[in-house]
Structures are given as structure tokens and as C-alpha cells.
Amino acid sequence: MSQEAALVQLRSGSRTQPRGGAAMPAPQGDPLVHALVDALGDPARVLTRAIDLAAHAGDASVYHLVPRAVVRPASEAHVQALFRVSHAHAVPLTFRAAGTSLSGQAVTDGILVDLSHDWGRVEPEDGGRRVRVQPGAIGGRVNAVLRRHARRIGPDPASIDACMMGGILANNASGMCCGVAENAYHTLHAMRVVLPDGTVVDTSEADADARFAAQAPALHRGLAELRARVLADAPLVERIRAKYRIKNTTGYGLNAFLDFDTPARLLAQLMIGSEGTLGFIAEATLRTLPDLPAKLTGLLLFESAAAAFAAVAPFAASGARAIEFLDDACLHAVADQPALGVDVRTLPAGAAALLVEYQEETDAGLASARVALDGVLARVVPLVPPRFHDEAGARAGLWKVRKGVYPAAGATRRPGETVIIEDVAFPPARLPAATAALQALFAAHGYDRALLFGHAKDGNCHFVITPAFGEAAEVARYQRFMTDLVALVVGEGGSLKAEHGTGRNMAPFVADEWGDQAVAVMRALKALVDPRGLLNPGVILNDDPRAHVAHLKSLPAIDAETDRCVECGFCEPQCPSRRLTLTPRQRIAVRREMARAGVAAAGALAHDFQYDGIDTCAADGMCATVCPVGIDTGRLVKRLRREQRSPRGRRVAALLARHFGALERVLRLATRAGHVVERLFGVAFIVALTRACEWLVGTRLPRWSRAIPRVPARAPARDDDAVRAAAAAVLVPSCMTRMLGLPRSQARSAEQVLLELAARAGVPVLLPRDRAGTCCGLAFGSKGHADAHVQLLTRLVDRMWSWSRAGALPLVLDSSSCLYGIHDAAATGLLTGEAQRRLAALHLVDAAAFVRDVLLPRLPVTPVSERVVLHPTCAARKLDGGAALRAVAQRCAVHAEVPLDLGCCAMAGDRGLMYPELTASAVAPERAELLAGGGQPACYANNLACEMGMTQATGVPYVSFLYLVEKATRGPEN
């Protein structure tokens, strides 16, 4: 069974469980749905529930269209069948990859084809000089694969870690550094296309054009004739050449008619920037570029936009690869970003910034760039002396400032306002005057909170405005603004769309920029390839002069935790439930749809949201790590869980918290009993028994698993007067370690191993005698029992205060999740009074950092030669990016790797036992990468629950990294 087939089975199977949402809906007589199911051969690939349609009704743009069905094809044959269904039923069809489109290209009221699940293959070729990709591959992952070859793809959009190759290609995305020469159009090597009539054209084949002529002679001939028509029109040829000297994605890519002569290759190039209106890009091969390793990045502040623009040409002449402009409104929008390095309130009104980066192949080249930079700085006058960084972390912080401008701007909108981002381009020499005219235009139309930023070296400006479309007058105001904007850009010889694609917002204005002759060619191309006009209608070409103000998305205020969301989609690659139910963006979108819908519709959505939105959210907070404004959808879900808790449930939780020591003893006994039953009757018997109990009580219960470790013997306390006097640290084993800390593959518990390592290193460690019955309360908090969480954490803080001699000794926690949970509780003020004061004074240390910094320097290490695979947990990545675990593994193993598809295991304490389909779907990509590496790897993590989840989902034992350290430090006798 394929990975995706297994996940589909899990998704459909999960609906039949208690509290599992509605069953997969039957077509109920809808001929279209019947036809789609027949086309794909699997009802689970055709989504028609209201919650699924609401989740896919928007993209990152201002537009909102509810599809009739969402389908997930797995092959070209599926796509060909979908084309036939679309034609037979005269229903539009739209392809969608990541849905990060900013201009409404990925929404439809017809059939929405979701490519994010099955189309993610990435294959480097010729030593990485080329890369073959499918449309569902995330751009950042493509670069991660290519990094092993010191290469990268040319396009570098700000959304590269979320957007997918289908959108990058279909919108001819560019970005900060690629300019007009390194975009998708100019780096395309070959493409495999499925056309609306089912014809497949693969330009990687030597006889591609002959095959195309044989399979689709009329289309082949028509493209040749259309090219001849373009070439015969000398003024049009000159206009096309002029238009592509700057960034331009308005309309179809007419430059292809000038640059390529065979119809097959011409077709492939026309697919770039076609926004899914001509066919399906099944696969593309791109030429790659060197990933220049030596980089130097700095942020320069100027007293005005004019002063900043005056510095652009000198920086460009000095060899800067990227020059990004931010106006004063942008600086205020990202004022809380630490990397900004300045209090924006101290800047003069109208201040602006340039983010400048140099990229070189060698350190010597970077030294030369520094010399060139010094020459520029001698001529330009920033407000404060700039600091340029070559360290990766500092540079990443500066780029986070730039990439977060749009979502940050959206987060400041007022109730009832929506967010529109547009991008235009001007000849670089005209940029200062044009941007001044743009800002005057904002003021004239009352958009006084507009932001302006962009790729200054390329004359490319992005702007963000936040109109309120609740009233007709506001819509009319926006229409007047657009009319004036088009006149301004066209008058300056610019592009109405520079890199985001034409979409819906500029579709009515293509003729204003290009003229009738060029648009006639575009219409002829569309009619030739898609004569029925069913592929993504309304995008690129639209006869409705009001198309840009139709189907607008409202963003009602619903939840304080998430109201700042602009639905950009940056969070989605981090979400463990994205292949099973909903992503953070979709959870928010569905909640907004509940607010828009009537009572009955909202009730139906809420019913399915229980499983899809609440039960299967790992609440790991990883979405916040990539959200430009730090939205943690997990906090919303925890609050919703808390609101669902009955008074009786809260009383029970409080009782368990008060008597946690007794609960710990009961759970140890129950786990031992589970192992006995497993030995006697097998795992299947226990699972069947659990299912029967679920049927009786009507709710999910934790499932027994072969991944559940054994109960360890209690380690003798190291807690007498002599130990207390000499102790260098206090070991605080988690409650899970005490209950389940003995992996089936090991003879000693993780607690015992850490104590042994400390003894080997000669580091006296205190192991408290009264550690039993303590817990950080994280498990209670994640289930919505806040009072029990506070009660347990307060007790633990009191104990740690005593163990550490009022904070004098560091406290070593063996669970990264517990450590992060405690840090988060301190940051959010979960505790109050004396408990909060004590917590702030404690020195809490992750076990991996303790081993790296204290134990390993005192131990002889013989690195192991086996293949070591790490799973830095979500908590570890939020604490230090997983750096401590990586450093320990690199010291203790000849080769230690972290999978490119590292994600969250979604174990979330016991959630992975209650919803094993969640863990299976979350880990599926990482599992595939792990098993593809060959052999039996030795797998390590730094949190017991995650080790269980990874073992359960991959079938490969994961244990604590402490066992790796123990193995590498045994000495020569072993």
C-alpha cells in the first residue's frame, strides 16, 4: 500500500470512530460527485463535506469562493479523468498547490484540485545542476535537497518555505534575488504537461515535438500559426521585448513566442505564468544555480524614502544581490522583531530602510564584498551606523523582518477590514518618483495606513492596504483607487503585476497595460488550448470590469488568539494534522465560516470541527514558529478544549492532580498489566478490548501499542547530606520517565543511564527522594484542565525550589516538552505570586544541553559508526532549534543526520495513543525518508512521548539520545 493510500485509509477510517466527525458523505444523488468518485476510484479522494469546502474556500488573497468539491488525484490518469468530468458536466476546474496565492488564483466555485498531498517528489539530476519536481513539492524543501549539492532553484519568493512548485511555476514567481534572469521562465529545462483534452506533452523527450504533432495536430499547428502572427507584427514584437526588461507577470508570457520556435517547447514556456488556465504541470525540470555560501546581510535606516532610494544604485553597482526597501509603515508593523535592532518610535517620520545582502562563493569573495560595501557606506548616510552580519542566525533574523511585513501588516487591521497586497514594477530609474506618486495615491484615497516595500534593485514595489468592504461606498472607493493605480503604473511604463501573477484583481486591466493587439493574442492562446474555457475561469483574462471586487473575503473577528491571521498559509508545512484533517489556517478559516454562516450551517460545521479541528490538533505550537506574527493556533484549541470541560470533569482533573502520586502508582501498575496481557494474548486483543470500551462509553480511549515502553524499577534516590553538599546539579525526571522510562530494546532506564553518565564524568548529581508524584501539568493543560495544570506546576516549582537550594543549583529536566512547557508557563504568567517569582529564579536546563556542556567535556568519546538518525522534538526546536541534540550526536557518532522531512510526531502526550491515525499521518514523510536510507538506523530523540510516537509510526525503535552517549563513552573495553 502506498503512503498516500495508507493515509487516505486512516482518514476515512477515523471518521467511523467515536467523536470522529461525520462519516465520509455519500454522493446523495449529485451527478458531479458520483462522476468524480468514479474518476478517482476512491470516495476518500473526493471531499464534499461542508467543513472541507469551507477549509478550501480561500487562499492567501482577498477572494473567497466555495468549491462544489475538493478532489485529490494521485496520478496523471486521475487528472485526465478530472478533465473529462469537468467537460462532461461543464463545471470549472482549478488546480491548487499550497494555496499561498496572493491574487485569487487558487479558489473556485467549481472543482478544486488539491495537489498538496500526492505530488511532492524532488529528484536532483546531474549532480544537482538540474532538479525534477512535482507541483506539490514545497520550494524550501527543494532547496534543502539541493543544498547537499551546494545548489538552489532560481525563484526565491518570501513564501518559499510554504509555497509549492506548482504555484512557483504557474505564477512565474521570482523574489528577492532572482530579478528577471533567474525566475522560473528562464531556468526551465523541461516540462511534462497534461492538456485539457488529455494530451500529455513531455519536452524532456527527444522527439517531444513530433509526438505533440501526432497526438494533437490542430493544437500543434495552431501554436505555430499564433507564433507566426506575433512575429509578423513588428510593433508588438518590440512591445513584448520592452515589457520583459522589468519584472512582469501581467497576462500570459508572450515573450515565449519570441524565445522558442517548436510548439512543444513554446507550450511548456507558456505554461509558466499561466496560473493554471492552460493545463496541468505534472512535472518540471529546472536548471539550478550555485547556492553561494558566504553571505553578508545588513539593515540600513534612512531619514526618508528618497534617501533610501538614492542608495539603491550604489549598492547595486557594488554587487549587492538583494536590496529590499521598507517604508516607515513597514518598520512600525514589524517593530517587535528583535532583529530590527532599533526602537522605531525614535525614528523620524517618513523614515525608511534598505535590507542589503551580498552573496559570494568564497570567504575571499566576501572579503572583497566588504571592501565594496565600505566604499558605498562612505558615500551614503544612514541614520545610524549599520551592522552587517555573516552569521546565519543573525541574517535569518533580518530576513524574518522583511518576509514578515505582509502578514504583520494584516495583523494590525481593524475589525471589518480585509487585507490586499499588490505588486507593481517600474523601470528602476523611475522608482523614486513612482513610489512617491503611489504614496500620494494612498493619501488621496484615504488609505493612510498603507505599507510600501519591495525589491528596490528590480524596481518592484509591493503595497498593502486594508479596505473595509462591508459597505458599497468602500467598494466604490477601492474601485476608484484601482482605476488611478492602473493609470499611474501604465503611465510610468510599469507592470501592473510584477511577480504575484495577474489573478483576479488585475484580470480586468490586462488590456490597459498590454493593449488590444497583445490581448487578442492572449485570448487566441486561451481559446486554442482550453476552448471550453473551463480551466480556472476569471483568472488572467476577465471581461467583467468589476471582477476584482467580486467574491471578496470577509475576516470577521472570532478568536483573540487568531484574529490577526491573514490566511497566508506560512503555518501549514509545520502542522502535523495537515494530511489528516485541517491545518492551522484551515481551522481559522472554518471558525470564520461558522461566524458567517447561519445557525444550522454553523452547527453542522461545529459537529465536524470537533474531530477535524479540536481532537486531531496536536497543539504543539509549531505553527507559531513560522507565523510572521506568532499566532499559535494550539492555544486556541486548548482554550476550546477548556471551554468544553464540564464542571464534573474539572473536579475529576483537580482530584487527580491533588493525588498525582497515587495516579502515578496506578498507571505504573496498569502498564505492567498491559505488558502481561500483551505477552499472553497479543496487542490485537487489547486494541479490540479498548474499541469495545469506546463503544460503551462513547468516547476515544488510549490504544495500547507495541511502542509503549516498560515500567522501570525505581532508581535509588541520591539525596543525602553529602550529595546535597557536593551536587553540581539536580536531576528532575519527568513523570513519564518514572512511569515508562524503560524502552523495550534497553536494559536500563533513561534515568539510570543519565545518572551513570554523570558518575562517569565525575559530576555529582542530586536525585531527589521525593520526586515521585511530581508533574509539570502539561498533559492536563493540553486537555483544557487549566486549574489542574496550575496546581501541579505550583507543586513542582515548590519542590524544585527546595531541591535546588532556592535556585542555587541548576535543575536538569530529561524531557524537552516539560522544559518548554514550564518556560511557556513562565512567559504567559500561568502562575502568580510566590510561585511565579520562584519559577523565574530557577535555572532550568535541558538534558541535552547538560550533556553537551557539562558531561561530554569530561568524558572520553569514541564516536559510533552506525547510521544515526535524530528526531529533535518540537519542544527542542522551539528551545534552541535542536542545536544541543545535534551537537551531542555529532560528537558521539561518525555520521548523524536529521531528516529533511522532520516534523512533529503529534504524540502530544497520549494524543497519539488516542488518535494513532494522527501520528501515522504526521510522521509519514519522515518515515518514508528514514526507510529510504536503507539498513536499520539507530534512532534517537529527546522526549519519551515523542520516542513512543516515532516508534509507533515508523516501526523503528526510537530511544533517548542518552543511550547514544552511553554507547560512545563506555570506554575501549566495549
Description:
The structure is a single chain. The protein is α/β, with parallel strands linked by helices and 974 residues long. The protein folds into six domains: 169 residues, Uridine Diphospho-n-acetylenolpyruvylglucosamine Reductase, domain 3 (2-Layer Sandwich), CATH 3.30.465.10; 112 residues, Alpha-Beta Plaits (2-Layer Sandwich), CATH 3.30.70; 70 residues; 70 residues, no CATH class; 198 residues, no CATH class; 111 residues, Rossmann fold, CATH 3.40.50. Strand 5 and strand 6 form a beta hairpin. Helix 1 packs antiparallel against helix 40 and helix 22 packs antiparallel against helix 23. The radius of gyration is 29 Å and the shape is globular.
Strand content: 5-15%
Rough outline: globular
Strands of the widest sheet, in order across it, are: 15-12-14-13-17-18-16
The helicity comes to 40-55%
Q: How many strands appear in the DSSP assignment?
A: 26
Outline the low-pLDDT stretches. Answer: 1-27
Number of helical regions: 42
Main structural class: alpha/beta
CA-to-CA gap between the ends? Answer: 42 Å
Average of per-residue pLDDT values? 93
Radius of gyration: 29 Å
Count of separate structural domains:
6
Largest sheet: 7 strands, antiparallel
